[in-house]
Design goal:
This protein is mainly β and about 150 residues long. The protein has a single domain, classed as Porin (Beta Barrel), CATH 2.40.160.20. It has one helix and eight strands; from the N terminus they run H-E-E-E-E-E-E-E-E.
Amino acid sequence: MIKKIILLTVILMVVNGAAFAIEFGVTGGIMSKSSSNFNYGIVGGTGFLIPMLKMEFEFYKMKGAEPPDNPNVITIGIKFRPKFGKLSPYAILGVGGEFDHLTFDFGKYNKFTLIGGGVHLFLMDMISIRADIRFLNFSDSTRTRFSGGIFLHF
């Protein structure tokens, strides 16, 4: 499963044509209005020709009490992230889907849109910690996700 996710991330980054301004991180957080409250995952991002725009790919697992409540989630979004010294606030707009098993039959995914924001605090030029909030809008519900993580920037 993880090998497929990593391979898909690499393919999307190559297709994006951005072998520069790559960021990679690990995150963990909590989700409101969900039986699977805790989530953890990986994030990959690339830069565009416009310096403050980034494309972000995120894959995370939601942990619940029972296996049916443990969906996998994949999101893709566009971030507007200017940098002011050690702080880099951002806003993100994207789409995503929940699924049990990774497949290219997207009809089986529980799809949603997302909007959110957060901040990267750079500890060094290549290392930052991130805190964010995201609002996930499903067709039948809305969830709020709070998360944090550590990132490497190349």
